[in-house]
Amino acid sequence: MTKVPVRATPRPSEDRRLRIGFILGRSFTLSPFALFVDVLRLASDEADRSGRVFADWQVLASSPQLITASCGVQVAPTCGLVDPAGFDFLVVVGGRLETTNPIDNETIGYLRKAASRGVCLIGLCTGTFILAECGLMRDHTSCVSWLHLQQFRERFPDHDATAMRLYSLDGERGSCAGGSSAADMAASIVRRQVGINAEKNALEVLQIDGARPGEHVQPRKIVPAAGGDARLRAVLIAMENNIERPLSIELLAASVGLSRRQLERLFMARIQEAPARLYKQLRLERARQRLAQSNAPVIEIALDTGFESASNFSRAFRSAFGAAPSAFRNATPETL
User: What is the Cα–Cα distance from 242 to 259, expressed in whole angstroms?
Assistant: First the structure.
């Protein structure tokens, strides 16, 4: 009986491996970094062997000092700021937004050099803030977490930003909301750069049923009664992301393929509330939060929550909460 020789899976030469470099900001978030790296690790070899066969990754830094994550875990760089052209992607991992100077000037210059050489830069979690601070996201849509969208818009008013998806990747820049979506983005890169079998191996070992696409709406329980209706959830998120300049109900309906009347029926069936009324309530809730947590003038808060005048805002606020904005602020201890 003639034996058929078993052919091993061909191994790529080193110059054909997927190469990714990580730059960790001070107080970076550990979970998205770890998930991204583990997808690469498991996709790079068979089963759980962890060999760097199909991919390679490094943690880059301007000095050999340990980098501390927001949870206190420390990570050691594996190499310096080597030639950026040696990487297919550079992933900047951010963390707490209160951290000043998350990366040093040398690293900022390195990222700008990488961009000029055509290396794709990815902002992971609040790493997108770091790239924007470097002036590297102005011509690209930044995908950020719903939790940080307002802060991003306030800090970079001339940038396009969205919280309506998990991640985006256009060839020159990428951005990811963070958390578990880091695994989805890494899987997408592996699928395109290495292959579907490599992606499948990584996700199966990580006990992930399947990678979500970038356009998947970020999970958030704004109104629990929204249930699993993706259209309703998308409209609610769009409302919360457009408080300062409210969108028309017709535009919101069209964004999910419905007429205004169809959207109104959907709202009444699911949450027993008209979309226009709920939208106004969301704006008023945002205004109440601003009154309690800041000393901004009432007229500024009124305009920032989509009201045309202070008097119009005051009437709506009193009707909703039983007190004028100034009286509410004076009675709120957080503002003292």
Answer: 20
